[in-house]
Amino acid sequence: MERMEAMQSFEQIFGEKAEDLFTAAGRINVIGEHVDYCGGKVFPAALNLRCNVYAKKRGGNKIRMAFRGIDGIVEIETDKLDSYRNLKIGNYQAGVAYYLQEEGVEIVGCDLFYDCTVPFGSGLSSSAAIEVATAVTFCEYAGVAYDKVHLALISQKAENGYAGVNCGIMDQFASAMGKKDHAVLLDCSTLEYEYVPLQLGEYCLVVANCNKPHNLVESKYNVRRQEVETALKTIQTVLDVKCLAEVSPKQFTEVKYLLSGVVGKRAEHVVMECDRVHKAVEALKQGDIVELGRLLNESHYSLRDLYEVTGKELDTLSALARKESDCLGSRMIGAGFGGCTISIVKKTAVEGFIRRVGKAYQDVIGYKASFYETSIEDGITVEKL
Ligand code: GLA
Q: In what order do the strands lie in the sheet with 182-187?
């Protein structure tokens, strides 16, 4: 939705003009999947697909929210923030307000129009984008100074404690801290981070959504978390480690016998994926895009065979990409069970790639995949309108 259109919608709905635009980004993850909650390093980047919040401060105790494409207004009151956990739309916002208020931030009444261009359920973190953009909005209107990393943590808290998804920190961190044309190498156990230029030479990343209908991702995700926690507890009986990411591949081969089938597979994925992150970042820094592509493929196979979070749609989409001679690697990103893949494709070949992979995918799966035009952008933006 163009900005003018969004501003017109705001005025029609709320009867006054929007005054501010706060945005936060959706994200891709180059590599490091399902390791953030194991203390591993991840390598995400913020996208041009974003949650845009058109806003006007009003004062009082009412937050009125409207959403592009959805009729009606959702209203929450700042003195009842504990009571909106079951809202279908608006619960992320209420959760963010709830935890900010708990910290002493005064939540001020306002009108908000959400234009979220991150497709929902796509594995590109629309929820993190909504949370982070909302957190910025409330802090700006409270007139408090805020630290972006802290906003990411508050947003994660809202998703864990309020929306009930036991996610790690990767998405909210990328959404808040992303930097134009860079990926963020984030150590999820210390929150230390480094920006690495995402320069792929004559190649680029193509983001494709398998469009599998979204179902039960949250509960399956929470099960994976329990499985790796079980693995960690067992490994801790013989190794002095704080998290699975600290276990080296060599150590893992020595302790693997302690773990039962499924739990062993999950832990093996985490250990090997952490190792791949280091290798991938090195490859990227050296300009070795072929090696980066190979590691992306390995990541996908591991998510398919060991972590078991892919499914026919993501496997088909990434396999079709890999068959293309101008594609160096492809993998699912995010929680999995549906959502998106990223593929490294020669810039000059993107059009044909999309056409052929799109057609073959539809032939096999029976419905279309979507391909997005993406660029890597800053995380949070704040603008007066
Ligand atoms: C989801 C979660 C993240 C991360 C990824 C998998 O996107 O929100 O915290 O665990 O899945 O890497």
A: 41-42, 182-187, 193-197
